[in-house]
Amino acid sequence: MKPFRLGALSLALLTAFALVGCDNSDEKLQAAAPAATTTAAQKAPEKPNAETLAKLAAASQGKPLTLLDASEVQLDGAATLVLTFSVPLNPDQDFAKTVHVVDKKSGKVDGAWELAPNLKELRLRHLEPNRNLVVTIERPLQALNKATFGTDYEKALTTRDVEPTVGFASRGSLLPGKVVEGLPVMALNVNNVDVNFYRVKPESLASFVSQWEYRNSLTNWESDNLLKMADLVYTGRFDLNPARNTREKLLLPLRDIKPLQQSGVYIAVMNQAGHYNYSNAATLFTLSDIGLSAHRYHNRLDIFTPEPGKRRRAIWRDRHAAER
């Protein structure tokens, strides 16, 4: 076993054993809420000030306006059409009048053009997957230096196919029980998930952690052995509803689920609602107001604790001893 893995397992065990005997909170619970997004809403880039515009215009003076590239890229988790030009575009124009995208099957593609901060890229976000598109650019499109596109351009492209996916954003989490916001997941075009939560039996904890080995999924065969060491405490359906065709990080709300108020080590096993697979997304997490998490760097080990609680007897395990 690698030293880092052994050290990490030791920390997990240390945290988990400290949980045994912790008091549960008697605070009243509120109604459960849908999953919440952790991604800030996308804001349109601000227009450069007059001084910046003047400098950009001067730097590109006399240069022609041409198209360098037209392709699909992933931008903030969303499929985006990006048109890259040779010189900055004039931001004071209606791009919808000169730049068009048409789906060969359904017609004009909805959406608004977004001009990048460098003024050289036009972006159209949230493309539908596996679609045949035609991009056209008309002559009047204008650059910041007053040059125009000068020709009619057309290009056909097919957007990438996208399969709905969902999984946990971490292979393991330490969540402070009193202020826990939720369990992070990554979702793409999956609106609902079913999740089974298991609490690891204290007497089986050491054996369970040694067999878990940083998994991010659990097969039916593996679950027969591992889940014997845990009790099923809650099964629920969560509404994710991520933005269409956008990979989003969301939080499964745990605070208001009464069976998950007890401190302990848990396993969460998740599948897309209505779909049954041989292997399902899984993660291990700890609910506690005491514990440790460690970040290992080249020349140091930083240790963090959650919200301070009552004074408790300090426990120290030598890292080098754990690696031997």
From TrEMBL:
> According to the UniProt entry, where is the signal peptide?
1-18
Describe the location of the Alpha-2-macroglobulin MG1 domain by residue ranges. 57-161
Checking PROSITE patterns in the record gives: PROKAR_LIPOPROTEIN
Q: Which stretches make up the Alpha-2 macroglobulin MG2 domain?
A: 167-285
| Presence of the UniProt keyword Signal in the record | yes
Which UniProt keywords are given for this protein, alphabetically ordered? Signal
GO MF, any single term: endopeptidase inhibitor activity
Check the record and name the PANTHER family matching this protein.
Answer: ALPHA-2-MACROGLOBULIN HOMOLOG (PTHR40094), UBIQUITIN DOMAIN-CONTAINING PROTEIN (PTHR40094:SF1)
Which named protein is this?
Protein YfhM
Q: What is the lineage of its organism?
A: Bacteria, Pseudomonadati, Pseudomonadota, Gammaproteobacteria, Enterobacterales
Q: Which gene encodes it?
A: yfhM_7
